[in-house]
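Hello forum,

I keep getting stuck at the same step: I have a sequence, I want structure tokens, and every attempt I make locally crashes halfway through. Rather than fight my setup again tonight, could one of you with a working pipeline run this one for me? It's a single chain of 508 residues.
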Amino acid sequence: MSDTKIYDWLQGMFNYYAEKFTGDKRNDDFSLRVLLAITNHKLEGRINIADLLKMNNSQMLTKQFIASLMFSQHEIKNTFQRHLGVMQEIFREFDKRGLHDYPILIKGFSVFGLTRNNINLRRSADIDLIYSDPQMLEYILIELNFQKDEFPSEHEYCRMIREDAAIEIHKYVSIIDYSEDINQKKIKAYENNRKIFFEYPTLKKNQIYYDDLIQGAQLCDHLGGVIVPDIHYQIFILCTHVFRNFVNSQFLFASHIIIAELFDIVDLLNHESFHLKQFNKIIEEKEGLTSVRFVGYLIDQMFGIKDVNRILEYGADSLTGEVFPKILQFSGAMYIPSKSEEYIYYGIEEFVNHLGTEPIILNQGGSEVRIQNINKFNSHSVRLIDYLSVKVEEKKLNLIIKFNDIMPGQNCDVFEIFIEDKRCCFIVEDHELRDEEKPEGCSWTLNQKEYILNIKISDPLFIPNKNCIELAFVLGATRWGTGPLTTLIPFRLLVDHPFSRAPHSNNR
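Reply #2:
Ran it on my machine without issues. Output:
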């Protein structure tokens, strides 16, 4: 079923971008965005190029797009063979030592290990392994000339690298769920048609350990003895991964929902070895209902696959009114998506537009324009920011922020600016300014006396040599003191070159 639904999804994306792009570079822009969407969602291995070229608007695809897609498909096969060789090498080393409780492969080509279908092979940067004794696995990998790289996250023991492969050793697979406070507030926000609400994002957590997986793990003879989770844990791990990425992705919208994982879930649910009772038992034991329901909702909304949705509803009458918020800021801002496109290819620009934000018209070298209604998305009645103004000066975009010094010397103000896929972040603590994340083209200064921030954005984040530039921003300000106070300010700017057209009047 998934191999036909992929083209329905692609056609929707083709139609969306065909309407979005105009001008001389329309085909180049269209091809680039389609290629990015396909690669971000790891769908290269599922696409037949001949079928792709039969679709509406496919004439806009460039030769470079076709060449890039063919290269990616070739690389998927090469990477699979290389990773398979590494896995077999590890197993041989275990055998030499008389160890027969082998590590389990999770993610990567583990789905292919169950289905034996090439469409389940996808691009994978590393090999994910889970083991009962991570330190022992680390030692064996060092003997195989791997080097320890880093401690990536709470659920990962370490990352090991060698010239031909990178391996992440997992202590467990993480399961998350909303807290009761979030569940209560999300319903109120949904009922009042509010897309953004504020609640400190405390998440309930559970874990899947090696001992949970090894009991029913499948030995894949066609892969030289590689061991993968059984089909029920495989589906559950994918569901938890999809949901966790969505909740924690902040302003990186579509890039954290991987469509290939949803199609893998569909394929596994339709596999002859799937049994609903066994799957439900795992959900009950591990308290992972929300992750599963979220995936069922996504598959229904995005692909209209009702049979799968009924399985993943897990006895619920309907998911029509289900609400799944995501974290925008870990200080407490949360967002409720309402369109299926938001899970697929929405970015900052579409997010800001979806909030009903009117564009602010600027002229290069023109006067300063003050943004109105900046406290619309504010966690408390206390106002952190007095005003926010913008102007273009010396080929740079200037943001001027005057904020209220409520508790001088007893607070920490965190400022984040999101532009497309870039994040700028700096911290003001005890009237001192320090950088946390500072991409090229962004700088800031602090007037301590008046507590005014001046942020300057230039090339490559702001490119002033175009005739007309439209930019979408989200400015987040959080004050940490007695508790987090958060303000989110989404805004759109339309910047006209002074010689390109008659100047617009400022939209205030």
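The chain has 15 helices and 24 strands. If your local run keeps crashing, start a new thread with the error log.
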